[in-house]
Design brief:
Phosphorylase Kinase, domain 1; Transferase(Phosphotransferase), domain 1; 6-stranded antiparallel β-sheet; 27% helix
Length: 192
Amino acid sequence: MGSLKQKRETLKEDEPWLVEKSFLVTGREWVRGRILGQGGFGSVYLASVKKPKLGSEGFPAIMAVKTALMAKSFELVSERSLLGEFRGCPFVIDCYGEDFTAGIGYNLVFNVFLEYADGGTIGDLIKQSGGSGLCELQVRKYTESILKGIQYIHERGFVHCDLKPENILLVTSGSGFVPKIGDLGLAKGAAG
């Protein structure tokens, strides 16, 4: 509990421009929750939808929201665009849309709403294994899904450029987790 408080205090120091309250996005209010992760191009938070309104379908009750100051959001804007290209692939994280909010000091903040990976990442799973690694059955299942996701991305003329265990997200599905490729901020168009 103390470490979470410390993490929140650190977050406030690192991102003093961020306002922690409800916002309006296409007819829905949403609330930024706890931090899920931080990267070089922004931070990811849990987000929940409040008071759904008529005509605002398309947003689940719980999402992840990737956030960056607009002035530093080139990679996030690019990622949002690419996720639109990959919509419908069951092995790439889903994107529900974007929103702009005003932070403290009227800093414009760009927010991208993503599918919430409640299982964390494959990197988390490997760390939790205590050095024993994943069982062969898991490796086969996850590898097949990841390769299908990579194939989908490549068939559309793009290369991920930052594929690593921390960018393979685990989403609950039926009797387990489905690995989905995420963090496409460094993806590039394939030459030729």
